[in-house]
Amino acid sequence: MPDSQTATMVASLPAALSAEERIRVLEDRCLTLETQLSSVGNSQSDLRAEMRQEIASLRSEIEALAKSMESSNRQINGKLDRLFGARAVVTAAITLLTSILGSGVVHLVVSIGK
Fold first, then answer.
1. Degrees, nearest 5: CA angle 57-60-62
2. What is the pTM assigned to this prediction?
3. Residue 74 phi, psi (nearest 5)
């Protein structure tokens, strides 16, 4: 299968598949081709070369997907860290404000009670 057929196969994977599922499908395809390659005789050198090219193409597609997935995960984790940090600051500010207001109310009640 030449590179154009690999690209067609990758493009035909359902869009609903996650990157991990796409990687798993591509790895399965690689293993299948590697198994078939081991059974192809040395006399069929053209087929062997074509299969090696297909396997290399699939491996590079897997690496690209893995890098993309890793980059996305880093971005998501960074955004989550900022979100949780902001949430902690807001929570601390609300706690401080409530404490100050609570102390003020207690002081007011004690002052009025005297």
1. 110
2. 0.55
3. -65, -40
Cα–Cα distance, 108 to 35 (Å, whole number): 83
Share the mean pLDDT of the chain. Answer: 81
Number of domains in the chain: 1
CA distance 62 to 68: 10
Q: 91-100: string of b/e by CB count within 10 Å (b at 16+)?
A: eeeeeeeeee
Q: Which residues of 40-63 are buried (b: 16+ CB within 10 A; e: fewer)?
A: eeeeeeeeeebbeebbebbeebbe
Residues of the domain holding 105 = 3-113
Interval 50-92: pLDDT, tens: 888 988 999 999 999 889 889 988 999 899 888 889 899 999 9
Q: For residue 106, what are the contacts with CB-CB under 8 A and spacing of at least 6?
A: none
